[in-house]
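Allow me, if you will, to draw on your knowledge of protein folds for a short while. A protein sequence and the structure tokens that stand for its backbone fold form the material at issue. I would ask you to consider whether the tokens describe a fold that such a sequence might reasonably adopt. Thank you for your consideration; the sequence and its tokens are set out here:
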Amino acid sequence: MRKSLKDRLAILSDAAKYDASCASSGTAKRDSAASGGLGSTEGSGICHAYAPDGRCISLLKILMTNFCIYDCAYCVNRSSSNVERARFTAEEVVWLTIEFYRRNYIEGLFLSSGIIRSSDYTMEEMVRIARTLRITHGFRGYIHLKTIPEASPALIEEAGLYADRLSINIELPTDAGIARFAPEKRPANIRRSMADLRLKIEDAGEPTLQTGRRKRFVPAGQSTQMIVGADGASDAAILSTSARLYGSYDLKRVYYSAFSPIPDASRNLPLVKPPLMREHRLYQADWLYRFYGFDINEIVSGREDGMLDLDLDPKLAWALAHRAKFPVDINRAAREMLLRVPGLGTKAVKSILSARPHRRLRLEDLARLGVSIRKVKAFVAAEGWSPLKLTDRSDLRTMFEPKPQQLSLL
């Protein structure tokens, strides 16, 4: 008996929760109000993704199908998994996107898929969806496609003409992990596809000789997703892999996805689900590496096992391990050192540097910038404030650790 569209939507939207989505930050501004068509990439809008600038983007996040010819041990939709299967046609995905937009539920589409028949067939169907939305319906909202690295370069290139962002999953942090848990996938093919996509994006960024304009091709760049916790890789190994990916392929983002084991003794997979807090700490560490000037080795140096502290955010953990560098004088310190103060973000540091030529700053001034005084006061000196012995307190860590909670007995 064929499932209803509503039933399939429930199955395939739930199956898509394992794919990390992204917002439309970084893409070109398009608005149908000025140019005709349908949708836009701007404003706030059943999936909510958050841009680095804080904007909330609503996306229809679904799989085209959760059928898959691959049998990756960490994937809930693997061919041997006993999950309920469903599939959309290309026309149904287009209809859902348009109708959800008309009802003001969404501002864009995040589309992924299991592999059916072949990589090329699956990729061709996904491209057809994006092409129909753009060309036939004039859809100007955000589109993110999860591409298939084994698909032909021509198909991936065509996808880039219609999508704002493409992502090719790196899958696991190490080649050994992929060989063990996803033997049908080839790390070399994944990296080659990512490299080809980078070159195409760079080529499109150069103005043409005839018009002087840049070609529209994946304006929001490419990203990737990494499964965390399936292969036993340490946080140090994960972050080192991420650093290489950023450098080699000019990625806009590496997304971390905490592995949720599916009981299967034959797979020899970990039986304990890693906490989602680990995923959160990896995102924080990733941010320190990309925007705060931290080296990967600095971030993970606090523990011998190469793991991040789950109780403290990575910047605070680093500060507690390097107390000799504190307190930092907010009226004199260089930008690089201000960025290492727990509680000071890039915007706050920019505001501090802008204000210093005009006045000497006090703790109250930091509070006006939205800075948590509780978090920074042990690590900064300001006009009228010195932490005295606060930075050297033996129990300083306990001031920031989460308080113990009584577990429910019911």
About this structure: The chain has two domains: 5-220, 322-399. The two ends are 41 Å apart (CA to CA). The beta strands are 47-50, 56-63, 108-112, 142-146, 165-167, 222-228, 253-258, 328-329, 380-381.
